[in-house]
Inverse folding.
């Protein structure tokens, strides 16, 4: 099993997989054998101290001729050191998604009507869908969700962590070449160790998900070309990641004037006002906390302006605006409820946009 | 076929006792509802059959006897796809071997 995201240790994930075969992990009651999905298999070996840890299962009943006589479960788990790689070289998720949005924007402007359709769908339509998705993802990283998330972190913390971890981990591998080499080396070493424990005729089955799918794909391609290590007999994947691009000023300047290029022109104008125009310097030190806070405040300004629109409408209609008169009003149950409702509204909008775009893409490719 | 026509042999109940109460009831209830559902014939001469239950996680080995169903054993046998393809003799031998192994030699088919 090759896992992707998460801050778990080597043993916990292996055991979680094993336990999920044999009991309902969501149940608050003690596990019973009735939940066992594989009652015909018994645990014959568990070596939690070995590297990697291993579980060995054998059938309770004699296997038929040519049947499976034993299954050894190993886990390739690089989450802890992938976390270190990520921690040492932080990625800005907003920048990541803005980069994706810009790349799609620029590419869509370059398309010509005579260009061959992609999988039978019009290139411009596909680009519009992708751009909308990138926009939704970008919106998901800005403080509009982050601020209520601080208050309601106990309830939505898992969702936010999953969102952040998933994209950060994918980017760690796809964009960060150092991270890619480290994770690849770890996978090579672990599979070489597993190979020494295998006998002739044994089958190597790799199950991978999220980032693990990309890591295993690269392993297969690498070993296929060099032929230095054993290739898996079967690979099962449960999800894929994809690459994106950095935000380059030249790409922004090449864009034709239009609705889609306005945000980028505005971005460069504001960055210019703060003497921050130009491409990102990969060797530059990380911005200070104050600089990042200022960046967030400026990024939040357009959103705040739009959020104020209803208040302006009320004022223009001559109705009095009920501003909070004290901190007590701001921290009241009613105010917190309104904030929660607003957050649900924003998340629902984002979810709706993602589903709508996905549906549109499926329709285009049908 | 109603549940009343199903007779559980003592040795089969003993095998069932090794499972938890939920599984025991679920297997008896599901098998009693329709013993012939998905049944595989394992010995035409003895009128022996195998019925997968509980999502193919267990198999009930039974015999048709005087118009009734006599349950001989309940085992966690799941190689059903393979079992359906093999010859009658192999089928009988394999199931017999599994039942003997699970019952620690107490039940011979």
């Amino acid at each position: 099993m090759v896992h992707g995201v998460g801050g778990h240790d080597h043993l916990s994930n292996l055991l979680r997989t094993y336990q999920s075969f044999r009991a309902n992990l969501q149940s608050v009651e003690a596990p019973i054998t009735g939940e066992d999905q594989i009652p015909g298999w018994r645990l014959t070996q568990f070596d939690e101290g070995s590297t990697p840890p291993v579980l060995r299962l054998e059938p309770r009943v004699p296997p038929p001729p040519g049947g499976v006589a034993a299954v050894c479960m190993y886990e390739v788990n690089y989450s802890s050191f992938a976390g270190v790689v990520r921690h040492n070289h932080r990625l800005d998720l907003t920048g990541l998604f803005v980069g994706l949005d810009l790349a799609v924007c620029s590419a869509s402007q370059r398309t010509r009507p005579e260009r061959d359709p992609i999988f039978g769908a019009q290139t411009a339509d596909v680009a519009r869908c992708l751009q909308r998705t990138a926009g939704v993802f970008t919106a998901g990283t800005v403080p509009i969700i982050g601020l209520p998330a601080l208050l309601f972190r106990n309830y939505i913390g898992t969702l936010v962590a999953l969102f952040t971890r998933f994209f950060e981990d994918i980017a760690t591998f796809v964009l960060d070449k150092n991270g890619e080499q480290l994770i690849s080396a770890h996978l090579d070493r672990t599979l070489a160790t597993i190979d020494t424990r295998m006998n002739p005729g044994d089958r190597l089955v790799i199950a991978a998900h999220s980032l693990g799918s990309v890591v295993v794909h690269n392993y297969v391609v690498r070993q296929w070309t060099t032929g230095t290590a054993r290739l898996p007999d079967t690979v099962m994947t449960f999800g894929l990641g994809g690459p994106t691009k950095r935000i380059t000023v030249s790409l922004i300047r090449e864009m034709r004037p239009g609705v889609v290029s306005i945000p980028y022109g505005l971005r460069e104008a504001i960055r210019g006002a703060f003497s921050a125009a130009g491409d990102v310097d990969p060797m530059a030190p990380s911005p200070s906390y104050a600089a990042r806070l200022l960046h967030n405040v400026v990024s939040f300004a357009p959103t705040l302006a739009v959020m104020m629109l209803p208040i302006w409408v009320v004022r223009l209609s001559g109705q009095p605006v009920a501003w909070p008169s004290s901190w007590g009003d701001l921290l009241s149950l009613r105010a917190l409820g309104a904030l929660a409702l607003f957050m649900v509204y924003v998340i629902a909008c984002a979810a709706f946009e993602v589903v709508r775009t996905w549906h549109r893409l499926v329709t285009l490719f049908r | 076929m109603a549940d009343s026509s199903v007779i559980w042999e003592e040795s089969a109940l003993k095998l069932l006792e090794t499972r938890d109460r939920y599984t025991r009831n679920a297997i008896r209830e599901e098998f009693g509802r329709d013993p012939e559902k998905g049944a595989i014939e394992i010995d035409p001469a003895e009128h022996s059959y195998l019925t997968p239950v509980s999502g193919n996680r267990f198999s009930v080995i039974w015999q048709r006897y005087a118009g009734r169903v006599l349950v001989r054993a309940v085992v966690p046998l799941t190689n059903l796809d393979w079992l359906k393809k093999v010859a009658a003799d192999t089928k009988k031998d394999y199931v017999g071997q599994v039942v003997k192994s699970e019952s620690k030699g107490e039940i011979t088919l």
In short: The two ends of chain A are 33 Å apart (CA to CA). Strands of chain A lie at 41-47, 54-59, 71-73, 205-208, 234-237.
